Every structure is written in C-alpha cells, then in structure tokens.
C-alpha cells in the first residue's frame, strides 16, 4: 500500500479492531443451518477469516504509513490475531465440538507465548501458542487443538505450538531455559482462565524465586553467542533488525531480565525500580517504536518474515518512513544513520541495565558477576590521580563534581582507563553522559585535553577499545565535531561493511594490532617497514582522520586533508608533522588504486607514482596506511592478492626514491630473465632453450613474473610434445587467495572475451589478466581468479572446467549464452544501486600502450561484454586489471591497435569511448555470442 492510497481513504480511524464476538456472529450467519463439521462450512469459515485477517493487516499498514508508529502497528496486528484465534476457538468449542455438560477434564486454555506473548507482532511473525490442558485429557481437547491449528495453518500462518499440562509446563520450564523464557511471557488468550492462572501462579512461586542470577547469566550468554554469529558489530551496513547487535532481540533480552529479576510486568516499571531513569525509559520506548516501525515496514515490503535490512529494501524503507535526500546525504543514508543511532542507544541501555545488576545486586548475584565482570570489592586510589578512584575494580570519579571542576577530566578519564586497562563504573558512565555539555570550544582548545586525546589515539594496547567507548558515550563526537558528523553514517554501497565511524576506529585498531606484533603473516612488508618509521604517531592520526570528510558534497580526500590541517596543530603536531598527515589523507587511496588498476610491470607506473610520493618515508607510511584501511573495510576485503600487488608496487617504487635504482639496459634485463628461466629448466638442452626463448617478444621477458614464465614454459613444452594446438595450466596461489589459469592456443580475435565468458559460466570472479603473443602467432593468456573454495583441489576442479569450456568455445562445440548472467542473484542484488558509467582513454599513463579505464555498475557478464567490444574495435589487449569495489566495477585495459601502436587519432579514441560506454546501457546484449 502506498502513501497516496492511504491518503485517498476516508478520513476515519485507520485501524478498526473487529472483536471475536463480531467475527463469531458473522461466521454463524455465513454457516447458517449447515452442519459446522461439514467441509463446506469449514471452507466458508476459512474464506471469511482470510478476509478478516487481510483487512486487519491492510488497516494496520495504512496506519503505519500515516503515523510511523511501529509499536502501535505491532500491537494492532497482535490484537487482530488475538480476536481471530479467540473466534476460531469459540467456534470450535460451541459449534464444531460442542459439549452440553463438559467435565473437568474437558477444558482448555490458549496462551500466547514468546514474542506473541509480549502483545506485539510483525506481519510475518510466528504465532507462538501454548495449549494448556488438564492433567487428565480427553479426545475433545485434542480435537479442539487440531481444529484451531489447522485453521491457522490454512490461513497461511506460521504457528509454533506446544500442548502441555500445567505440570509438564513447570517441569520443562525448570529444565529448559528456552521454555522458561517463553513461559515468562505467557499471556492469556481464550478458554479456561483458571488453567492459565494456575500455570502463572506455579511459575512465579516454583520457578522464579532464587533463579534470577541463573536466568540472567543464560540470557547474557545467549545474547553474546547471537552477537558472535551476527558479526559482533552493530555497525554492519546490512544489519539484522531482529538478531543483530543493537536490534530487537537485545531490547527483548533487557525486558526479560527486568521482568524476571525485578518482577515487573512492563518496561515502564523499571523506572520505579531505579534501574532506568525517566529519560532512559523514554529512550527505550523510542528505540522500540523505531525498530518495530522498521520491522513492520520490512515485512510489508517483502511479504514475508525478512529480518535483514539488505540493500535492495533499504531505499523502499527510507521512502516509506519519510527520509528524503538532504545535505549531501541520500534519503537511504539518512534512514540508515537513524537506524545505527538507535542501535547505539540500545547498546547504551544494555550497559546501563547490566551495570545496575552487577553493582547494586552483587551480593545475591555471584553467578551474574562471573558472567558480566570480575569483582574486586572496595574503593582505592589510583597512583598519580586525584580525580579518579578504583571502585569495585572499575574506574570511577573520586567526587561527583570532578568534571564540573575541571572539564579536562572528561578526556583524561579515558586516557587513564586505557593506561590502567580499566573498565568504567556505571556511575562514571552516567556522569560522562550527563556532562557532555561541558565539552565546548574552550575544552577543545585546551592543550592538556588534546595531549590526553593524542595519548589515547597512539596507545596500541588500548586505542580501539577506548576510542569505541569515547564514541558510544558521545564524547568523541563532541570533542572532535568533524568526527561527530560521520557517527553512524553509512554509505549506500556494497564495498564498505561498516559505518564510517566504525571503519575509522577499526582501521586504527588494525594499526594497533601491527604495533603489538600481530598480523605478521598477513602483512609481512608492514612489519618489515615498521622499525624504519621516524614517528608512528602520524599513522594513528592519519588513520583516525582519513575518511572524516565522508558524506560531504566534495571529494572526501581533499576535504579530509583540509580538516587535518586544522586538527593536527590542535592535537599538538608540528607543522611538518601536520603536512605529512594531510598528505597521507589526501592521497590515502592512491597506492591502492594504482596497485589494483595499473600495470605494475610497466616502468612508467612506478615512475609516475614515485613523482607523487617523493620520499621513502612517505612511501612506507602510505604502504602501511593503505593496508590498515583495506583490512578495516570488512571481512574478506583484504586478500593476499591485494597485498602482493601493494608489495610489488612498493618494491618497484622504493629504488626510485632511495637512489638505489640502477639504469640496467633493456637488453640486459631481457637476457637476465632468459638466463633465470634456463636455470629453472636445468634439464632442457641449450639449443632447445634458445629456440623456445626466441619465440617470445622482448616485452614478455620484462612483464611476466619469473614464476609465471616457468609455468608457461612447462605448459608450452608439454603441448609441443603432444602435438596439441591448445593447452591449459593451473597454479593455485594460496597465500594470495587466487588461482591462475593459463591458456596456450592459436591467437583468436575474441580469445579474451571467450575466456571471460567461460569464467563467468563457472561463477569465477576475474581480478586480472596478462596477455602475450608469440612470434609464431600463438597466444599465451593468464587469468587470475579470486579464490572461492577452501580446498586447492576444488579450485583445480573449477579451473579445469574453465579450460575445457574455453577449448569447446574455440572449437565451436559450445557458445556463450546470449543472456549471460541475466538470472544471476548477484545482478538482482545490484538493482538498487546507480553508478554513473565512465570511460577514460589515455596515452599519458604508459609509454607503449593506450590505457582504457572503464568504471560503472558491476554485473555478471560485464567483463565478457567489454572484452568482446574491445575485440570488435580491432584492439589488442596487452594486460587487463579487473577491480570490483562492492557494486562498482573498475576495469583497466592496456591496449594497442593491430599493428602494436598506441591509439593516437582523436576520432578513434571517441569511437572507443562511446562503444564501451554503450555496454553499460545494454545490460542484456542481444547480438550472437560468438558472432
């Protein structure tokens, strides 16, 4: 239902609840004299209930669209469900299985449990029911239960149910924590109220007393495990609204704890118990209402119980909830920022309630204490500190007015917490939150406060934890207002896995991990360079600030450098240090872009990069910053292959900056490469080796890696021996996370596009290609594929299939599908995104090649379409560099014309530009695949 449809409806209450009595009367009128047990009567009942349910949900959706009151929507849906179930039960007991003189054993009570028991339901929620029967049961109870269940199932509802006596309920609640939680939330629906009341009374007297710590410990452990399974961060850009960190289940857990331990019936009663302040309760209610609104909207959009806010539904959710583009942010980005701020509020509430339990009920909660935190009783001084004390093992204020007397203590407290490796006392957390108003321009300019902050930022043992605590308390965004602008900011793309603030904190954390000796195997060059750095502090500052200008209409690298020039002197850095940090931020994407999108074997690449970097120290800093940045983007973003590209670029550039570059002549380098291969092929006669070497052009020896030359030589020699015109070879490179597939075949104008098509047919992701021709008209092409399988054998199986497919395509035994990738789930996932297509044709990047850089919305089959178009343009590809950044593809081709020359004519350059741009405008190419 759209907002326009809602507004067109008559101006009345948008949700009208139909009572069970009304529904029952309507059913009586429909059935009339028809026997209630007859199939025709049942069909009439079912059809009418479907209409009642559909109308109730339509009304609930209309009111949600008009008001965005999520809790009310969930209550409306639940209330309608209550009345429908009550009507079904009464129809079953008074019409279908009527008893004139029921015995005590012929009784039944229906209770809502689980989420349904809380009195709220999303459109796709399960209906959790408990049928409570007497100890002695009769067939009548079974018949009524089956009638109710089958009617609900036939209505298309997902019903979770249990049929138990009161004794069974109590016994299972004692043994099973899941059953205990469900029973805790039991709510009477219809039937014999005495049975239900008996269950509640026995549960409250036999199960709950003395078991609060056990229950709370189990719920907290269950929460932690759920968080681990969901990625243990509330700042992932496709969050799970139900089970993710900061989601609805966390609020449920807080309520369960409050209801069980404090014996409350509603969350509002926690205020009277002193657990929450009135302001904190309002925060709880607002968070709950927002999350319910999002969840109900999500279920209405998808028509099912989806709980993950995937990219394809986020724009629709933003529109339905009234978020529009503003101040450089898309509506969807504003909506998701609101979501993450609410998730942060849920985290704050969790800390408040858990801390209250831990400290105010410690005597009775030894078990909870063991789960939540270690205890050290009493108060003691901290050496060298007068404003802070150690209170029950936690950092606390020595006096309540410590912040008022000296606001610098607001920053110093975090520095002390990191230095002493302490957690915060709950009273301290409340004091910090209540004192945010003290963080003003005077405090921001205070040299002591900035020195404390710089200490926090450059302390590897604690920096990530303390920065995250500063952020979640609100201090970080107030002390560094530019950081405050990117708190909870997500970018609507598939590349970044976290919000901008979380990414910055994680990137600093990666840096700290390196400083603490971690990641030696993943980042070997970084550890090699670390001792050579003059000042590692600059990297911490640069990483903390490198994306701080995201979300602004201008280039975030340039704007970020400008912010750094303002902030670094405030933090206490010298002009020279400030200049270095600003340069790193302005160029923080440079090394990654060149390594992944340029031919590193081309001498011009390193030369141009060196001219921008200008010093070995800057090169080392940029290398480490780039590695930390990529690793902090998200799981799986950093790969050994990316690391090898960065190392290759570093090793190619460093000699140019350090003066160690030797001007070895072209012919000497070629001869050295041939001699190295000859040594590796030591069993090959000299004459045969000379004949083999003469088949290659000189540029092959300069551009192909020595290991790859060896693979090629063995593949070609084997093909020559067997007399086969086609050969393939496979090299699995486990550390780099890639598999290389090489092909040796008579050259073919569409060879590259056919190989790309064959890879796509096997769901293989291409990340690079090197293309060579021999003097006798053969092609030697090597494709690098992103690893997909944990087993090397599985990688080899897929690569073998690709080789077989290429052979069949070349022989005309098979064709690439015209609509390659059309039904791909990946392509469907990309639909919400818009990436402007761009094609740049340049002769300035390489001395021998025209470089074509193509960027636009990625899709399965894109590389096949691009390479086929390049073939149609009569261009020869020397190397290809395939990059994917979430939904954005950036593919770079080094090309010449058929005579091996650059493309110099402007008219032909424009023709290339227009033809490749058109590839993005026709996602489903209708031309014959091999024609």
Q: How many angstroms separate the termini?
A: 47 Å
Coarse structural class: alpha+beta
Number of strands: 15
In which range does the helix fraction lie? 40-55%
Set down the secondary structure blueprint.
Layout: H1 3-8, H2 20-31, H3 39-67, H4 70-96, E1 109-112, H5 114-117, E2 127-133, H6 139-154, E3 159-165, H7 166-175, H8 177-184, E4 187-191, H9 193-207, H10 212-229, H11 248-261, H12 269-272, H13 278-302, H14 314-320, H15 331-360, H16 366-372, E5 379-381, E6 388-391, E7 394-397, H17 402-405, H18 409-419, H19 426-434, H20 441-445, H21 447-457, H22 463-473, H23 475-479, H24 481-484, H25 500-515, H26 524-529, H27 537-545, H28 556-571, H29 575-586, H30 590-597, H31 603-613, H32 616-631, H33 640-658, H34 666-680, H35 686-693, H36 698-703, H37 706-722, E8 727-733, E9 738-746, H38 751-761, E10 766-773, E11 778-786, H39 792-810, H40 825-829, E12 838-842, E13 850-857, H41 862-872, E14 875-885, E15 888-897, H42 906-919
Parallel strand pairs: 2-3
Antiparallel strand pairs: 1-2, 1-4, 5-6, 6-7, 8-9, 9-11, 10-11, 10-14, 12-13, 13-15, 14-15
């Amino acid at each position: 239902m759209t907002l326009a449809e809602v507004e067109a409806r008559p101006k009345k209450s948008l949700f009208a609840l139909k009572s069970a009595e009304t529904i029952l009367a309507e059913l009586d009128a429909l059935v009339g004299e028809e026997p209630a047990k007859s199939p025709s009567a049942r069909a009439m009942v079912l059809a009418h209930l479907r209409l009642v349910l559909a109308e109730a949900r339509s009304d609930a959706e209309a009111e949600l669209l008009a008001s965005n009151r999520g809790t009310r929507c969930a209550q409306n849906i639940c209330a309608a469900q209550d009345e429908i179930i009550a009507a079904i039960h009464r129809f079953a007991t008074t019409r279908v299985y009527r008893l004139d003189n029921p015995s005590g054993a012929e009784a039944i009570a229906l209770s809502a449990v689980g989420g349904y028991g809380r009195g709220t339901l999303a459109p796709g929620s399960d209906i959790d029911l408990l049928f409570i029967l007497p100890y002695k049961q009769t067939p009548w109870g079974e018949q009524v239960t089956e009638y109710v269940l089958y009617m609900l199932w036939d209505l298309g509802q997902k019903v979770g149910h249990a049929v138990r006596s009161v004794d069974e309920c109590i016994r299972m609640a004692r043994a099973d924590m899941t059953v205990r939680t469900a029973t805790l939330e039991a709510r009477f629906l219809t039937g014999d109220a005495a049975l239900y009341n008996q269950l509640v009374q026995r549960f409250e007297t036999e199960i709950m007393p003395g078991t609060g710590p056990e229950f709370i410990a189990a719920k907290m452990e269950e929460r932690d495990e759920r968080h681990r399974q969901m990625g243990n961060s509330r700042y992932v850009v496709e969050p799970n609204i139900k089970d993710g960190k900061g989601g609805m289940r966390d609020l449920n857990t807080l309520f369960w704890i409050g209801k069980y331990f404090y014996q409350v019936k509603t969350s509002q009663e926690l205020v009277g118990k002193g657990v929450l302040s009135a302001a904190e309760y309002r925060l709880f209610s607002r968070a709950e209402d927002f999350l319910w609104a999002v969840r109900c909207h999500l279920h209405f959009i998808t028509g099912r119980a989806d709980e993950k806010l995937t990219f394809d539904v986020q724009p629709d959710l933003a529109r339905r909830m009234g978020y529009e583009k503003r101040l450089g942010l898309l509506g969807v980005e504003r909506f998701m920022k609101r979501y993450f701020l609410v998730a942060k509020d849920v985290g704050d509430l969790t800390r408040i309630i858990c801390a209250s339990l831990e400290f105010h009920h410690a005597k009775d909660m030894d078990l909870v204490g063991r789960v939540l935190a270690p205890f050290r009783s009493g108060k003691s001084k901290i050496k060298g500190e007068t404003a802070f004390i150690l209170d029950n093992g936690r950092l606390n204020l020595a006096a309540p007015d410590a912040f008022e007397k000296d606001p610098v203590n607001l920053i110093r407290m975090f520095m002390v917490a990191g230095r002493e490796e302490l957690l915060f006392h709950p009273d301290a957390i409340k004091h910090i939150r209540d004192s945010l108003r003290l963080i003003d321009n005077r405090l921001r300019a205070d040299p002591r406060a900035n020195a404390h902050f710089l200490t926090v930022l450059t302390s590897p043992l604690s920096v990530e934890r303390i920065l995250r605590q500063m952020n979640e308390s609100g201090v970080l965004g107030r002390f560094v207002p530019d950081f405050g602008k990117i708190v909870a900011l997500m970018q609507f793309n598939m590349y970044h896995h976290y919000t901008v603030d979380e990414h910055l904190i994680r990137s600093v954390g990666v840096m700290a991990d390196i400083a603490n000796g971690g990641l030696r195997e993943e980042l070997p060059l970084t550890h090699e360079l670390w001792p050579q750095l003059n000042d590692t502090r600059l990297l911490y500052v640069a990483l903390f600030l490198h994306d701080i200008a995201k979300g602004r209409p201008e280039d975030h690298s340039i704007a970020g450098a400008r912010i750094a020039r303002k902030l670094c002197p405030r933090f206490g850095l010298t002009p020279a240090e400030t200049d270095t940090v600003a340069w790193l931020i302005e160029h923080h994407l440079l090394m990654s872009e060149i390594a992944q999108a340029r031919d590193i074997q081309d001498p011009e690449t390193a030369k141009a990069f060196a001219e921008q970097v200008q010093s070995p120290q800057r090169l080392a800093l940029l290398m480490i910053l780039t590695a930390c940045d990529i690793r902090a983007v998200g799981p799986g973003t950093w790969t050994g292959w990316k690391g090898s590209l960065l190392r290759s670029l570093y090793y190619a550039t460093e000699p140019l900056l350090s003066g160690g570059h030797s001007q070895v002549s072209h012919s000497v380098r070629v001869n050295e490469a041939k001699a190295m291969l000859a040594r590796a092929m030591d069993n090959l006669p000299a004459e045969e080796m000379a004949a083999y070497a003469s088949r290659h052009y000189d540029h092959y020896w300069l551009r192909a890696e020595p290991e790859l030359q060896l693979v090629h030589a063995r593949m070609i020699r084997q093909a020559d021996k067997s007399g086969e015109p086609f050969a393939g070879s496979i090299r699995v490179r486990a550390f780099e996370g890639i598999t290389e597939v090489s092909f040796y075949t008579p050259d073919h104008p569409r060879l590259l596009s056919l190989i790309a098509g064959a890879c796509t047919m096997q769901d293989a992701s291409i990340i690079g290609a090197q293309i060579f021709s021999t003097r006798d008209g053969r092609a030697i092409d090597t494709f690098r594929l992103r690893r997909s399988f944990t087993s090397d054998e599985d990688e080899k199986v897929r690569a073998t299939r690709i080789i077989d497919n290429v052979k069949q395509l070349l022989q005309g035994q098979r064709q690439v599908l015209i609509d390659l990738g059309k039904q791909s789930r990946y392509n469907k996932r990309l639909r919400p995104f818009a990436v402007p297509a761009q094609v740049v044709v340049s002769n300035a990047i390489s001395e021998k090649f025209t470089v074509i850089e193509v960027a636009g919305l990625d899709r399965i089959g894109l590389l096949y379409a691009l390479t086929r178009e390049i073939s149609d343009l009569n261009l020869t590809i020397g190397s290809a560099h395939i990059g994917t950044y979430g939904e954005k593809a950036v593919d770079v081709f080094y090309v010449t014309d058929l005579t091996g020359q650059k493309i110099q004519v402007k008219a032909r350059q424009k023709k290339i530009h227009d033809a490749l741009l058109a590839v993005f405008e026709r996602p489903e190419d209708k031309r014959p695949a091999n024609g």
